[in-house]
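Hi R.,

Here's the chain you asked about this morning:
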Amino acid sequence: MKNQGRVSVWTVVFCTETERYLLGLRSGIVNNKNLWNIWGGSVDEGETLMSAARRELKEEAGLVGILQSLGSLVGKNTTMYFYLLLAPIEVKPSLDKETSKSSWFSMPKIQELGSKNRLHGPTAKLFKSSLIA
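And here is the predicted structure, written out as tokens:
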């Protein structure tokens, strides 16, 4: 297998009722603080991509569910794998210390945040890509 550099997994939560996405605001204890983000991080040794995505979502937002693969994006030194969790209602996540607050956003609002450089790198890349309709 070709070297993928740093491998990370990211999950976007989408409410089917309101057609809005759940984002978390990165807290002051992590890099890229005060940027809106989806849930994710690194893959631990021996962990599958799906298991890593489930773990990160549960650790960071207290959410569990059936994840669907959206695909991957490859950067210069990184490969990011993206997953989708469909929520029938706008749930309130149980945030860990990496996230100071969360909110549900429409696609136009996310695009506005992106135009103002208020999205964390993987989140910005996902919403600029063709992985999200």
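One quick note: Strands lie at 6-15, 20-26, 36-37, 39-42, 67-74, 78-87, 99-105.

Cheers,
M.
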